[in-house]
């Protein structure tokens, strides 16, 4: 509920508040490294619980003491690599050089996702290797191996990091047609950036959307609106004025979250997770909250702006598996 004693809130850095084009995010930035490797993965948001762990942040007042920490569980089934693609870069952006698929176009998972390979280009990846700037893997998720009640997988590209194009092609060819597990890329104690699409909350007013100050009790007509929309001149409403509109369903990135645990089949709550069910495959336990609703695909990567703080390996002494619905 809005309050009468605070000024307007809401960062202009996120304007315009445009809705996401699809229900899972786009990974447009990765940390630069000379090592040839994969630096990103994806998982379905399960829900939140809390753990008791030893504070592993060096320099903290409670360092080496047990603290209660809220965590988010992401179920991360293996990603299936179904194709690879090379790109060259010019003044107008990226252009596809070559493309190859490990499965035929009649594969059930690929046909469900609506992806076909009729437009696949030459498979001679080393013909123009000096012009290759990026090598990407085409992967799809396996929702049928999770508690998500759907069959259609998400299909997206995963960039192979590194400087040597020959080495990146070699790694991509090794992974083609195989599965990638989250434990091959990340481990407990790693910091990650989390990308997701936030919850959609429909058409909302100015107070809920921006947190503008409520007008006085005896204001004319309504109280839940801005005091005015700007000056007489210029004869237009500025884009900085808080207006009603759609709230949520935006692409958002949260930086530097710690992976406290990577496990499998040992994190089910009593009665199951609310609005999700049971965790059937590998999972990642992330410190803190993650944007989006349960069952939504969350992508995460190595941090682009890592913390300067130093941490010990996480030590968990207790994981709360009590029911969130009174079972």
Output the helix-strand order.
EEEEEHEEHEEEHEEEEE
Class per helix and strand makeup = mainly beta
Shape: globular
How many strands?
15
Query: CA-to-CA gap between the ends?
Result: 31 Å
Radius of gyration: 23 Å
Give the proportion of residues in helices. under 10%
CATH superfamily of the largest domain: Translation factors
The CATH architecture of the largest domain can be named as Beta Barrel
| CATH topology (fold) name of the largest domain | Elongation Factor Tu (Ef-tu), domain 3
Q: Please summarize the sheet with the most strands.
A: 6 strands, antiparallel
How many domains make up the 3D coordinates?
2
- What amount of the residues lies in strands? 25-35%
Query: What's the quaternary structure here?
Result: single chain
Number of helices: 3
Give a short overview.
This protein has 327 residues and is mainly beta.
Describe what this molecule looks like in 3D.
This protein is mainly β. The chain folds into 2 domains: 43-77 and 182-214 and 248-327, Translation factors (Elongation Factor Tu (Ef-tu), domain 3, Beta Barrel); 79-180, Ribosomal Protein L3, Chain: B, domain 2, CATH 3.30.1430.10. Helices cover 7% and strands 34% of the residues. It is built from 3 helices and 15 strands. It has helices spanning 108-113, 165-175, 206-210; strands at 37-38, 40-54, 66-75, 79-90, 93-101, 134-140, 155-161, 179-180, 191-197, 200-204, 245-248, 251-264, 282-287, 297-301, 315-319. The strands form 3 sheets. Strands 1, 4, 5, 6, 7 and 8 form a 6-stranded antiparallel beta sheet that branches. The longest helix has 11 residues, at 165-175. The chain starts with 36 loop residues before the first strand and ends in an 8-residue tail after the last strand. The mean pLDDT is 88.
